[in-house]
Amino acid sequence: MSEKIYCVAGFKPKPGKEEAVFKALQSLEPNSHREDACIHYTVTRQIDNPYAQGTGYPIVFHEIWASREEFEAHCQRKEIQDFFAKHVESPDGDIEDANVCVYTDEPWNFDAPKV
């Protein structure tokens, strides 16, 4: 059975704060990559493309973690908590809105072999 957790975290910066938010999110990458359970952790920014004109948050983290427990432990790190407190929760923060979701690649009713 796959225990991996896939996280997509979207951020909508306040007007004029796009570059500052992107840089602040990039600053979280090095220490997150140091976590043993971190499989993938990359912040991206939306670009114009005629073949992908959907709407969404302009800045998105793509994360893969070894397990739910290790993802939740990552979320409790002081650096991550401080980022959300300063940039998302504070009225003076640079982020207007955030949307963090987790996913699994395991199908419904998957009969994982017992090893």
From TrEMBL:
Location of the ABM domain: 5-103
Statement: the UniProt record of this protein carries the keyword Oxidoreductase = yes
Task: From the record, give the transmembrane residue ranges.
Answer: none
List, alphabetically, the Gene3D superfamilies matched.
3.30.70.100
The protein's name in its UniProt record: Antibiotic biosynthesis monooxygenase
Molecular functions per Gene Ontology:
monooxygenase activity
- Keywords linked to the UniProt accession: Monooxygenase, Oxidoreductase
Alphabetized Pfam families for the sequence: ABM
Q: What domain of life does the UniProt record list for this protein's source?
A: Bacteria
UniProt cross-references to PROSITE patterns, sorted A to Z: ABM (PS51725)
Q: Organism, per UniProt? A: Vreelandella sulfidaeris
